[in-house]
Design a protein that fits this description.
globular; Cytidine Deaminase, domain 2; 392 residues
C-alpha cells in the first residue's frame, strides 16, 4: 500500500487527507483494526520512535502513552510493586509481563492526560498488555506485531472500531525530512542523535556521583524529550517518566507543570489516598478524577458542597497542605532532563521540591554558573550534554 486516505486532517473541515510515501515506496504500516486518523498517525509514528529508542538504550521493553503529539507517559518494563499496581488499577490482574508493566507505568504516570491516548509498544503486543488496553479509554495502538489472542482482544474493543496498527520494525526513514507550513516546504536532517552514557559524561557540579539507575533515568528523560513538543522538561524515577511539561513557552513554567505532575504521581501513593473507599461501581476514570480533586485544593469545596457522598463510601479527611508537603519530602533520587538550557536557578529550586537529584541539560546559558551553584547548594549532580533536543 503506497498511500492511505484518511477521513480528515487535524479537524473535520480539513479535507482531503492522506498519508503516503513521497518516493513511491510502500507504507511501512498495516492497519489491522479501526480507521486511524491524521492525529492518530502523528501520535503513532512519534510514539513508535520513542519506544524504539528506549528499547535500544535500555534493552528493556518500552511503552508510551501519547496525546496530541506529546507523550503523557513513557516507561520501560520493570516490575511493579504492590503500591504501583494499586495506583495504576492493575492490582487485580496478577503477574504481568514486562511489556504490560511498561504500559501500566506509561499510562499510570499521568492518568488524567492519558485518558483517550494512543499507545506505542516496542514489542509484539502480548495478551497481558492487551488486557490492560481493553479496559482503558484509548484511541489505538501501534506495535511491531500482535499475538493472535491479543489481536482478537483489541479488535473487539470499541465494537470493532479500535485502531490497531502494525509497523514494520525494520523500516528506516530517509535521512532528510520535510513538512509544509503555509504552502512553504521545510527541510532538515532527521534528529539521529544517539542518547547513551557518553552523552552523560560531562558532570559539571561538585557532586560527580550518578549511579547506574540514575543514568538510565536520565537517558529515558532525554529520549522522551526528543519526541515531546518543546519547551519541555521530563522528570523520571525508577524507569518511567512521572512528569512531562510539554509545549510551554517558558522554561520555568514547564518545570513547574511537569513538577506538579510528578508530585501528583507521588501523592497518589500516600496512605491518605491509598485508603480512600470509593462507592461501588465507580469507573476508573471517575476514580482518577476524584483522586485529582482530593489531592488538590478543590477538595474543601467538595466537602462544603456535600458532594463527597457521590464518590466515597466514607467521608475522607482533608489531606492538608502540611501533610502533602511532608509526604513529598520523601520523594528522592528523581532524574530531570531538559530539552534546552536552564536560564535561571529558579528551575533548580522548583525541581528540588519534587525530589530531583540528577539533572541533564545542554548547558550554554550566560547564567550557567548560577545554575551550577544552585545545584551545588543542594548536592545535586548535573550533566551538560551540549545537545539541544527541540521537537516541533
Amino acid at each position: 500500500m503506497k498511500e492511505l486516505e484518511l477521513k480528515y486532517g487535524c479537524n473535520p473541515n480539513q479535507k482531503p487527507s492522506k498519508i503516503f510515501m513521497e518516493n513511491g515506496k510502500e507504507l511501512p504500516i498495516t492497519v489491522l483494526g479501526g480507521r486511524p486518523g491524521y492525529i492518530n498517525f502523528l501520535d503513532a509514528f512519534n510514539g513508535w520512535q520513542l519506544v524504539r529508542e528506549l528499547k535500544r538504550a535500555t534493552g528493556l521493553p518500552a511503552a508510551a502513552s501519547f496525546k496530541h503529539v506529546s507523550p503523557a507517559g513513557a516507561a520501560v518494563g520493570l516490575p511493579l510493586d504492590d503500591t504501583l499496581k494499586k495506583i495504576y488499577w492493575v492490582d487485580d490482574m496478577g503477574e504481568l509481563s514486562p511489556l504490560a508493566c511498561a504500559y501500566a507505568r506509561a499510562r499510570g504516570a499521568d492518568r488524567m492526560s492519558s485518558f483517550g491516548d494512543f499507545i506505542s509498544l516496542s514489542e509484539v503486543c502480548d495478551v497481558d498488555t492487551a488486557r490492560i488496553i481493553k479496559r482503558e479509554v484509548s484511541d489505538g495502538v501501534i506495535a511491531p506485531g500482535y499475538e493472535p489472542e491479543a489481536l482478537e482482544i483489541l479488535k473487539a474493543k470499541k465494537n470493532g472500531n479500535y485502531c490497531v496498527i502494525q509497523i514494520d520494525e525494520s523500516y528506516e526513514p530517509d535521512p532528510i525530512e520535510r513538512k509544509q507550513v503555509f504552502g512553504i516546504t521545510f527541510e532538515q536532517g532527521r534528529n539521529e542523535l544517539v542518547i547513551d552514557d557518553a552523552l552523560l559524561s560531562n558532570v559539571v557540579t561538585r557532586n560527580k556521583e550518578i549511579p547506574e539507575q540514575a543514568k538510565i533515568d536520565l537517558a529515558i528523560s532525554l529520549i522522551t524529550l526528543k519526541y515531546t513538543q518543546s519547551n519541555s522538561v521530563c522528570y523520571v524515577k525508577g524507569g518511567q517518566a512521572i512528569g512531562i511539561g510539554a509545549g510551554q513557552q517558558s522554561r520555568v513554567h514547564c518545570t513547574r507543570l511537569a513538577g506538579q505532575k510528578a508530585d501528583n504521581w507521588f501523592l497518589r501513593q500516600a496512605p491518605q489516598v491509598l485508603s480512600l473507599q470509593f462507592v461501588d461501581g465507580i469507573k476508573r476514570a471517575d476514580r482518577d478524577n476524584a483522586i485529582d480533586v482530593y489531592i488538590g485544593e478543590e477538595y474543601m469545596d467538595v466537602l462544603a458542597d456535600g458532594q463527597w457522598e457521590k464518590t466515597f463510601k466514607v467521608k475522607p479527611p482533608v489531606f492538608t497542605r502540611e501533610e502533602k508537603r511532608a509526604w513529598l519530602d520523601r520523594m528522592t533520587d528523581v532524574a530531570l532532563g531538559s530539552d534546552a538550557f536552564f536560564p535561571f536557578g529558579d528551575n533548580i529550586e522548583r525541581a528540588r521540591k519534587s525530589g530531583v537529584k540528577y539533572i541533564a541539560e545542554p548547558g550554554g546559558s550566560v547564567r550557567d554558573d548560577q545554575v551550577i551553584a544552585t545545584c551545588d547548594k543542594y548536592g545535586m549532580a548535573m550533566v551538560f550534554t551540549g545537545i539541544r533536543l527541540f521537537h516541533h
